[in-house]
Amino acid sequence: MHINGPGNRIEFHTNIFLNEDGHAKDISNWKERLLAIIQHVPDKADTLKPIIQFLVMTIAPARIYMLDHKNIVNQPAPTHIDLLLVIPNKNNIPFTELEPVIEIPYLKESRVACSLHNEGVVLEALRNGHIFYALHFTAENLIYDNTTISYPALSTEAVKEMKQRAREKFLQHFERAEDFYTSAEFLYQKRPGKIIAFLLHQAAEFSYRGILLSLNGYDKRTHEIHSLKKHSRRCAPQLNTIFSGDAEEEKRLTELLNNAYLESRYDSNYEVNENDLNIIFEKVKALQNTCKELVEIKTNLDA
């Protein structure tokens, strides 16, 4: 049996081989199950139907959510689709054995990334008002449901309180990020030097940490820009278009900023030329503007 998307829009194929000795009734039931999987898939996930069929037949998640990554002014839209797979507690297969399967699906123009989430953990997080789960494991983002159990939902008042706390947590780090950036600008006008790269590193670090704390409920304590980028990809993928690392020049600039935390202060051979410094200034400013806009959108008290 061959599955592909409508209008040949999907560069994804699943070839399913049926046992020739199988009973016709079993085969018919199996085909009916495949069709039933996509009966209630919303229109926004239409091109993902083959992927949803594949994931449900191979992993059997309780639910699948598709993240809605908001477009940010002056930043390219994310080039990937995030699917969150909720795995039932009764599934005893270790996540490490399931992970190779979820890297298979892909689309022509967008990469599909899947993450696994234990159902018990999800339910507990929703009851406790965890910011990441409350914002993303919603009815609006749901694209598949085996309808086994109902999930808790926060009251309107609880959601507003959660968003207000998220804003306050963001500002805890972001105010420091802005201070570091302002200090870098001031010093650049007075006496340019490689210590400015350290200040810009801190401006970027605290911007990332502010996003992670407010939108992911996670205070990642590290000075590694690479690590902060990785951890923020799911809750704020828009940030990865700024220090993208896609091209060699982008990788070089990101590495230059990443190394600035220690080398700009302790390595006499560390150098950053004026052109690179100006580009990093622009990128860190874009990072901060994007962080602010993301938090404003996701913690909008009227939404």
TrEMBL record:
Coiled-coil blocks: none
Transmembrane portions of the chain: none
Pfam families, per database record: HEPN (PF05168)
InterPro entries assigned to the protein according to its UniProt record, in alphabetical order: HEPN_dom
Domain of life: Bacteria
Entry-linked PROSITE patterns: HEPN
Domain HEPN stretches: 174-294
Name the record gives this protein: HEPN domain-containing protein
Organism: Niastella vici
